[in-house]
C-alpha cells in the first residue's frame, strides 16, 4: 500500500471516532430529554427501576463504541490487504521484467540475413597476406553510445520538510505533491519510507505524532547533532515529556523485535538525512523541520534509544 493510502486509512479511523462521539452525544441528549420530560415524583421509582433506567442509558453507548472499534479494526485490515495486494503486484511485475527473453540486436540480425542470402559458390584460394587486425563492421561503428539514466532533480529543503510531515489526508494536494517529488530521490525515499513505517506502527498503538508536544530544542543543538556531536549539548533534542507516549514506545522497543529493528533503521536514516540537509537549511527551516511528524518520532525514539545522551 502506498504512503497516501495508509494515511487515508488513518484519516478514516479518525472519522469513525468522530462519528462515535457524535452518536454518543446524540444519545445522551435524548436520554436527558426523556429524563426531564417524563412524569415522576418522590418515590415514583424503586431501586430496580432506577437500575434498569441507568442500564438502558449506558448499554447503547457501549454498543456504539463496540461498533466504532470494529469499524476501525476493519479499516486497518483493509489497509493491510491493499498493501499485500500491491506488494504482490510489484513482485509479479519485477519477475516478469527479469524473465523477459533477450532480443537479438537489430544490426546483428541484418548482417546474418544478408550472409544467408549470398550464393554458396566456392571461392578461389587467396594468396597469403600479412596478418592484420580485422576491420570493425560498419554496423558496430554506427551504434550510438549507451545512454545513462538522467539523475533525479535535487529536492529543495522546503519540499523535503513538507514531505517529512506527510499529508493530512487524501485532499492535502500540496503535501502529496511534495511527497511524490521527494520520493524520486533514493536517499529521501529511504528516510520517508522508514519514517512512514514507524509512524504507522505507533499509530496502531493509538500513539499519534500530532498529539506529542515536544519542548522546543535550541536550533544550535540540531546543527551540533548533524555535525556528529553527542552528549549534553544535544540532550534538548529528546524533548518528548509525555509519560504515556514514552511508556508505549518503550514497551514496543523492549518486547517487539520488528518494531525495534524498524525504529533503529529509521533513526539511522534520519541521522544521515540531518547530516546531509541541515547545512543547506536556515534557522527558520530547521524550526519547521522540528515540528514535522517524522521529527517528533525521531525525538521520541532517539530519547529512548539513548541517541541524545
Which terms summarize this structure?
12 helices, 309 residues, mainly alpha, elongated
Structure description:
This protein has helices spanning 3-37, 47-98, 106-117, 138-142, 157-165, 173-183, 186-203, 219-226, 243-255, 257-277, 283-289, 293-304. Residues 99-128 and 134-143 have low confidence and may be disordered. It has 309 residues and is an all-alpha fold.
Radius of gyration: 32 Å
> Could you say which structural class the secondary elements and strand pairing correspond to?
mainly alpha
Tally of strands: 0
Termini separation comes to 36 Å
Short précis:
With 309 residues, the protein is mainly α.
Indicate the topology.
Elements: H1 3-37, H2 47-98, H3 106-117, H4 138-142, H5 157-165, H6 173-183, H7 186-203, H8 219-226, H9 243-255, H10 257-277, H11 283-289, H12 293-304
Helix pairs in contact: 1-2, 1-7, 5-6, 7-10, 7-12, 8-10, 9-10
Amino acid at each position: 500500500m502506498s504512503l497516501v493510502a495508509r494515511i487515508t486509512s488513518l484519516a478514516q479511523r479518525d472519522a469513525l471516532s468522530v462519528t462515535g462521539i457524535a452518536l454518543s452525544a446524540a444519545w445522551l441528549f435524548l436520554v436527558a430529554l426523556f429524563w426531564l420530560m417524563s412524569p415522576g415524583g418522590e418515590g415514583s421509582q424503586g431501586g430496580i427501576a432506577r437500575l434498569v433506567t441507568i442500564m438502558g442509558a449506558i448499554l447503547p453507548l457501549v454498543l456504539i463504541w463496540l461498533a466504532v472499534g470494529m469499524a476501525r479494526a476493519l479499516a486497518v485490515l483493509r489497509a493491510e490487504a491493499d498493501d499485500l495486494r500491491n506488494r504482490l503486484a510489484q513482485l509479479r511485475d519485477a519477475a516478469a521484467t527479469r524473465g523477459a527473453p533477450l532480443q537479438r540486436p537489430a544490426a546483428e540480425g541484418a548482417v546474418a540475413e544478408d550472409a544467408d542470402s549470398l550464393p554458396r559458390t566456392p571461392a578461389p584460394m587467396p594468396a597469403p597476406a600479412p596478418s592484420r587486425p580485422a576491420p570493425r563492421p560498419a554496423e558496430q561503428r554506427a551504434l550510438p553510445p549507451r545512454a545513462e539514466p538522467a539523475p533525479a532533480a535535487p529536492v529543495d529543503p522546503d519540499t523535503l520538510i513538507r514531505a517529512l510531515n506527510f499529508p493530512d489526508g487524501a485532499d492535502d494536494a500540496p503535501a502529496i505533491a511534495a511527497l511524490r517529488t521527494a520520493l524520486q530521490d533514493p536517499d529521501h525515499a529511504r528516510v520517508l519510507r522508514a519514517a512512514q513505517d514507524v509512524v504507522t506502527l505507533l499509530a496502531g498503538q493509538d500513539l499519534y505524532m500530532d498529539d506529542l508536544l515536544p519542548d522546543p530544542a535550541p536550533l544550535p543543538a540540531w546543527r551540533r547533532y548533524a555535525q556528529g556531536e553527542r552528549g549534553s549539548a544535544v540532550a534538548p533534542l529528546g524533548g518528548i515529556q509525555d509519560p504515556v507516549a514514552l511508556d508505549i514506545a518503550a514497551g514496543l522497543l523492549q518486547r517487539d523485535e520488528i518494531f525495534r529493528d524498524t525504529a533503529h533503521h529509521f533513526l539511522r536514516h534520519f541521522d544521515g538525512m540531518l547530516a546531509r540537509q541541515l547545512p543547506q537549511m536556515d534557522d527558520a527551516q530547521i524550526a519547521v523541520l522540528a515540528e514535522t511528524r517524522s521529527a517528533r518520532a525521531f525525538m521520541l525514539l532517539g530519547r529512548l534509544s539513548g541517541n541524545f545522551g
